[in-house]
Structure formats: structure tokens, C-alpha cells
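in:
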């Protein structure tokens, strides 16, 4: 029996084998949307809780201030008012990056420079956060006792991460209330996720074949912790996933210029998707690269210059490049904080005496210190070793992908895309766990190849084991597990230490390895002149062979 979902418009199919299978399918979709709804509600409640707590701290400040003003000569009341002022200044008033950035967006349009370096400049060792010899701690931001809370919380923004074009895109959210902003962002993220699932599935299919719905389900299941993490952080990574998936879908349909334009949006949002530009360069797709280049010129130069004027555009973009992009891209600025799960982040902590509690983009100097390094390479040696490791990873990617240009509907393309997405996370200077939502691309390609790819049983079993291990690592790394075992404060401390050793980085490495092994296994089948993919799922220890170049 053919289900209504078995429509030519959908990139996956459901072949009903009975009532229980149909019920399980419905339950899986219900579970997905229930999970998304639960995360959205949890996010909303957390925002409301933070807002209420901030209001309590605001009232405590005003009460302490009134007591001080009634008796200004009492030093105890003045000290109490100052403490209450600082508590109100740093009170958490929302949850998520996009609502948090609203102050910076408003300052941007008010004519302020939100890309200036941290106060006091470079006063500490970027690897350890320790104050350098001859340097002093920079003065703290001036807080005027008696100022209203609105003035206290709107201190000048420094080192804002988004380029001017993205700030322009974020402008509508900055003028919403926090609750409306969170609701709007979450609704858009759910839509972006659903669209991404359909687009990535379409891009990964081989020829006219459509994957079974359970393949998509496994991919979403393995990516679920990453999806939840991004929803909770309220950042733009889900939109990066949607832009990447959209550009792959457009390429699959033959719209190369439009694919390049959509890829440019992903690059603007998070820079690291530029690695897909390198992939298309390696694939010699000049039309797609032309769409990428033209759209980047419009988005990065033309639009903000028209909005800001030539002089102010030059100042802001120059500061953004000088203070945030070039130090990491060209100068190798370290970011050793435990949340950084890229190859450089783990390398700085384990091999170069990096302080696991320090991020130089957030603080001019470290407030807390912790080290787990096994050796202490000098900065010069460490940079060279890291460069060699990165070059080796790129070389492995090029070897696994191969020089041959594949048809745009070749099922191996899904593994190409997954390998590039994983490479983005591994090679980047800064990769937080919620950046990894783009691994949905890799999981769809992997499960499709495991289900239908013709390869040796040993290759299939090896990749299945590595994928299962990656899923276990991915699911077990949430802080809630450590909090449940060790309590709130101790649990978070233990989670941070465990995170410093790079478990999420291990997850990336496992996925990277699976993509490489699957591509080489399919390349071996290709060299034998056999069909690469089957129309039906291949048994775990089975290896189908054929004489044609396609399974169709």
C-alpha cells in the first residue's frame, strides 16, 4: 500500500508494511514536534524567569539607592547601594544570543561603534589570560550611582561578533519585546529546521531514488541533541543550516547561481561556510562561485554602505575585521575556553597550556584559571604543528572527495556535503557545541550510504559502529547528566572539566572518519564498474552487486 506521503514532491517515502508501522511513523513525527515545542516552551519560561529575577534585583537597587540618598554620609549604605547597582547591571534579562544582541543593534543605529576592542586593549596573555609584565588591569566600566537601570544595562558594546550586514538583518528583532523576540526566533527556527530536513534529504538522494522515511528519522535522532542545544542558545546556527541546506537543494535542481547566492547568506551569518566555497572551487563549479562572489559583494559592501554611508561603513567594517576576524584567521589568536570544541581549541588546552576558563573575546584578562595540558609547546611551535594538522585534514578531505566531478544527483554528494560540514567545525578557531546543528547534513548522508550503498560488509559494520559511538558521545555530553549525578554547582564544574578534554570534538572526528571510509568504500565499488546504490535497504552483512552505473 502506498501512503499519501509517498508523493513525488517529497524527498523520502513511506512504504506501509502494516498498522503498527504506520502508527510508529506518526508517533515519530509527533515526537519530533513535541520535542521542539517543549524546547521552545522551556526557553520561553527561562526568559520569563530571568526577567522576573532581574526585576527583583532592580527593585533591590532602587531601595538601596533610596536608603543611601536619605543618609548620604553613611558609608555602609553607600557600599550597599554600589553592590546592588552592580548586581542590577549584570542581571540576566533574557536567554539567547539574538535577544541579547538587541542592545548592540540599537547602539549600532544610534551611531555607536559596537566593534571596538575590549577596554584597555591587549593586557593579558591570550592563551592563559594572565596579565602581561608591565601591564595593568583595565579600568572597569564607569557606573554612575543613581543612574536608572536602563542606563546601567546599556553600557557601550564592544567586540560584537556579527558583520554590519547581519546587524541590519537582526534589526527587526531588536525592537521587539524580549518575549515576542524569543517566540518569533523559535518559530522561524522550527520552520528552518523542517525546511532543512526536506532540502538535505533531497540533496542526498541518488538519482531518482528516494530514501525511506526511517533514514531521515535516524539522522534527526542522532542530530537531536545538537538541535536542542541550538534552540536553547537562541543563536543563528539553525539559519546557517537552513541556508546551507537551501543552497544544496538549489544546486541539486540545477540553479547554480541561486545556490551561490544562498550560500553567501550562510557565509555572512557564520563565516565558516566559506569552506563550501572551497569545495565548489575544488569541484570547478564556476557558475555557483560567481553567484557566491556577487552576492557577497552586495551583502558585505553595497547594502551596509548604502545604509551607513561610506565613512562609517569603512570604520565599522575595518574594526570588525581588525578586532574579530583577522586575529583568529591570520594571527592564530587562541581561544582555549572549555566550550571551544574545534581542533585548535582542544590543541590549545592539551598541548599549549591554555586556560580552560578563558576566552579573549569576552574578557581582557582571566578571572579563573585551570589547566589540563599534557605538554606546553611554545606559541611558535604550536602554531606550526596546528597548521600541519589542519593541512593534513584538508588533504584527507580532498583525497576522500576525489578530483572527479560527480553528477549533481550522485548519492555520494551527500557524503561530500557531510564531510565539508564536519570540516567546518573541526578547522574553525571557535566551535561551540550549538554550532554543530549543521551536522544534520552529515547524518543524512551517512545513514543514506549505510542503508543503500554497495560496499563490503566490513566497511558497513565499521561505519555503523563508529556512527553509533558518535551518537552515544553526542547524547551523553549534556550538562544535565552531570548535574543529576553531582548536584548543580559541582555538576557544572565537572561538566566543564570533561568538556575541556574535547568530547564533542571526538564526536566530530568520528563523523569525519565515517564520511571518509564510506566515500573510499563507494569509490572501490565504482572502480569495479558496479552500481553504487541499491533501491532497497542492504542487509548488514549483505553486499549487492550489479553491472550498471546506477541502481535505477
Amino acid at each position: 500500500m502506498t501512503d499519501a506521503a509517498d508523493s513525488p514532491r517529497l524527498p523520502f517515502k513511506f512504504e506501509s508494511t502494516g498498522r503498527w508501522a504506520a502508527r510508529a511513523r506518526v508517533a515519530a513525527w509527533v515526537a519530533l514536534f513535541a520535542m521542539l515545542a517543549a524546547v521552545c516552551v522551556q526557553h520561553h519560561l527561562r526568559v520569563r524567569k530571568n526577567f522576573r529575577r532581574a526585576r527583583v534585583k532592580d527593585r533591590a537597587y532602587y531601595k538601596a539607592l533610596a536608603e543611601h540618598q536619605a543618609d548620604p554620609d553613611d558609608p555602609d549604605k553607600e557600599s550597599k547601594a554600589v553592590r546592588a547597582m552592580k548586581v542590577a547591571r549584570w542581571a540576566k534579562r533574557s536567554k539567547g544570543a539574538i535577544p541579547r544582541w538587541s542592545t548592540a543593534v540599537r547602539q549600532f543605529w544610534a551611531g555607536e561603534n559596537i566593534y571596538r576592542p575590549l577596554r584597555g586593549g591587549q593586557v593579558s596573555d591570550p592563551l592563559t589570560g594572565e596579565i602581561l609584565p608591565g601591564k595593568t588591569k583595565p579600568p572597569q566600566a564607569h557606573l554612575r550611582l543613581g543612574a536608572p537601570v536602563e542606563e546601567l544595562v546599556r553600557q557601550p558594546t564592544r567586540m560584537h561578533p556579527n558583520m554590519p550586514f547581519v546587524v541590519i538583518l537582526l534589526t527587526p528583532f531588536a525592537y521587539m519585546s524580549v518575549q515576542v523576540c524569543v517566540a518569533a526566533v523559535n518559530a522561524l527556527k522550527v520552520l528552518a529546521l523542517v525546511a532543512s530536513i526536506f532540502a538535505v534529504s533531497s540533496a542526498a538522494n541518488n538519482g531518482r531514488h528516494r530514501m525511506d522515511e526511517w533514514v531521515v528519522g535516524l539522522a534527526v535522532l542522532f542530530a537531536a541533541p545538537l538541535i536542542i542545544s541550538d534552540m536553547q542558545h537562541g543563536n543563528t546556527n539553525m539559519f546557517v543550516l537552513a541556508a546551507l541546506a537551501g543552497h544544496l537543494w538549489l544546486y541539486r535542481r540545477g540553479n547554480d547561481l541561486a545556490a551561490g547566492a544562498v550560500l553567501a547568506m550562510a557565509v555572512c551569518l557564520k563565516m565558516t561556510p566559506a569552506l563550501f566555497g572551497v569545495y565548489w572551487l575544488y569541484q570547478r563549479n564556476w557558475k555557483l562561485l560567481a553567484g557566491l562572489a556577487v552576492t557577497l559583494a552586495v551583502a558585505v559592501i553595497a547594502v551596509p554602505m548604502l545604509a551607513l554611508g561610506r565613512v562609517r561603513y569603512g570604520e565599522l567594517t575595518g574594526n570588525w575585521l581588525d578586532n574579530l576576524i583577522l586575529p583568529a584567521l591570520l594571527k592564530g589568536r587562541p581561544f582555549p575556553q572549555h566550550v571551544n570544541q574545534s581542533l585548535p581549541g582542544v590543541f590549545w588546552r592539551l598541548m599549549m597550556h591554555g586556560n580552560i576558563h578563558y576566552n579573549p573575546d569576552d574578557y581582557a584578562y582571566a578571572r579563573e584559571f585551570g589547566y589540563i595540558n599534557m605538554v606546553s609547546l611554545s606559541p611558535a611551535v604550536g602554531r606550526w604543528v596546528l597548521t600541519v594538522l589542519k593541512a593534513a585534514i584538508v588533504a584527507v578531505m580532498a583525497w576522500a572527495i576525489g578530483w572527479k566531478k560527480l553528477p549533481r544527483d550522485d548519492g555520494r554528494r551527500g557524503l561530500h556535503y557531510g564531510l565539508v560540514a564536519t570540516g567546518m567545525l573541526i578547522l574553525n578557531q571557535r566551535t561551540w557545541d550549538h554550532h554543530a546543528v549543521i551536522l544534520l547534513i552529515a547524518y543524512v548522508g551517512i545513514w543514506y550510504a549505510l542503508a543503500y550503498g554497495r560496499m563490503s560488509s566490513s566497511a558497513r559494520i565499521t561505519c555503523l559502529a563508529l556512527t553509533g559511538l558518535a551518537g552515544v558521545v553526542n547524547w551523553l555530553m549534556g550538562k544535565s547528566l552531570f548535574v543529576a549525578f553531582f548536584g548543580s554547582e559541582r555538576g557544572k564544574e565537572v561538566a566543564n572539566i570533561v568538556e575541556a578534554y574535547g568530547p564533542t570534538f571526538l564526536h566530530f572526528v568520528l563523523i569525519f572518519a565515517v564520511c571518509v571510509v564510506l566515500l573510499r568504500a563507494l569509490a572501490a565499488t565504482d572502480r569495479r564498474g558496479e552500481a553504487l546504490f541499491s533501491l532497497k535497504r542492504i542487509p548488514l552483512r549483505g553486499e549487492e552487486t550489479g553491472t550498471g552505473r546506477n541502481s535505477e
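note: The beta strands are 12-13, 211-212.
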